[in-house]
Amino acid sequence: MPDYELRRFAGPAIFTEQLDGVRVAHLTDQHVGRVTPHEVQIGAVELTNAQEPDIVVLSGDFVCHSQEFLDQLVDVMGRFNAPVFGVLGNHDHWSGSDEVRWALRKGGVEVLDNAWTSIEVKHQRLQVLGLDDAYTGNADIPRALKGLDPRKPTIGLSHIAEEADALWDHGVPMVFSGHTHAGQVTLARLHEFILGRVVGHKYVHGLYGQRGGERPGAVYVGAGIGAAVVPVRLGARGRREVAVFELGAHVGAFEEDHDEQEPAPGRAPSLDLRRRRVLEAQKKSEKRRAVARAKGIDPFAAK
Ligand SMILES: [Fe+2]
């Protein structure tokens, strides 16, 4: 089996009064496609299933650069043994969000586009909120929160971790994210310099925020499974990973992979940059749809 990190965490603390033994498995940035071998995708699902999670949450970037591998995506998604919830990432919007969403639903994933749902786990109710991708300008927090009961236990999904800050105050104390790939190359913590200072991310990899206290709010940034550009994963933090969260467990009930970390200073993208990213996503998706048509690919025919 390919090599993965399995990281375990408890919390947040507020759930200890609300939930009993709910296990969430989190994977992100699968990037099903040419760069990541199919057996790596399947191995990640098998490792996840072996943890016997009650639910699986996926925080986006299911594809790489094209619509060519949607049948593989359907296959991978269909292998999970628990209910699966997901949100889209920038690569999904760049490659054609309708097509990726269709493949995900075909694979049994409940895609949450600025929406929330409620699931029963072991006779307990858990709300799951999903924010669409902020990088490409598709996140709509007020819409996602509409009708959510902030008194009930809720977890959130957002491809971009920095969106978590705005969810914490509205009854979503735990958010699962991705996008950074933990820098992929993490020798000498160079990734934190590049992603924290150059790209401007506050949350690079792992657990941040507060799981306890009066204003609980935590975010977990997964290192991801696949790769979109650089097929290299070096250093412990950059390894492919599955994270398991025991909701309802006390923080300190078992040994965790690491404690809450301090965020990097971060730098929010300017309005101009955000506008450019929206246009970039439109252009890219049009181009990739045209490529798929030229190659005779029918994305809605994935098996
Ligand atoms: Fe991404």
3D architecture notes:
There is one protein chain. With 303 residues, this protein is an alpha/beta fold. It has a single domain (5-301), classed as 4-Layer Sandwich (Purple Acid Phosphatase, chain A, domain 2), CATH 3.60.21. The protein is built from eight helices and twelve strands. It has a six-stranded mixed β-sheet with strand order 1-12-2-3-4-5. It has a six-stranded mixed β-sheet with strand order 6-7-8-9-11-10. α2 links the parallel β3 (55-58) and β4 (84-86). α2 (70-77) runs parallel beside α4 (97-106). It starts with a strand and ends in a 9-residue tail after the last helix. Bound molecules: fe (ii) ion. Fe (ii) ion binds at residues 61, 89-91, 159, 179.
Based on the model shown, name its key terms.
single chain, 303 residues, alpha/beta, Purple Acid Phosphatase, chain A, domain 2, six-stranded mixed β-sheet, 8 helices, 12 strands, 26% helix, globular, binds fe (ii) ion
